[in-house]
């Protein structure tokens, strides 16, 4: 369980992040969790005087998420990572690597997403 977790909507994200900046919080990182359905949780981690604040949004896998890199420049690295590894459509990243910061053209897209595997029973000897 994450302490000091505030669940917000995608539409509240930029205003809440701007408030963190105004209040003196520093941006630590973001984490992403594939919920196994059609949604992903993104948690934004902030700190002030060793006190954490965490903002969580839940978005559909095909939904756009605004970048916070205009507020916290350093967010561009983890935003590119989450965009690339989880396929989250983060828009407006100050420096967008277009899905190739970590992965090459030959590698699978969004390798951190849970894969839906269907196992078929085959006829024959069992």
From TrEMBL:
Keywords assigned: Ubiquinone
Protein name: NADH dehydrogenase (Ubiquinone) 30 kDa subunit
InterPro entries, A to Z: NADH_quin_OxRdtase_su_C/D-like, NADH_UbQ_OxRdtase_30kDa_su, NiFe-hyd_3_EchD
NADH:ubiquinone oxidoreductase 30kDa subunit domain span: 7-92
Pfam entry (one): Complex1_30kDa
GO molecular function per UniProt: NADH dehydrogenase (ubiquinone) activity
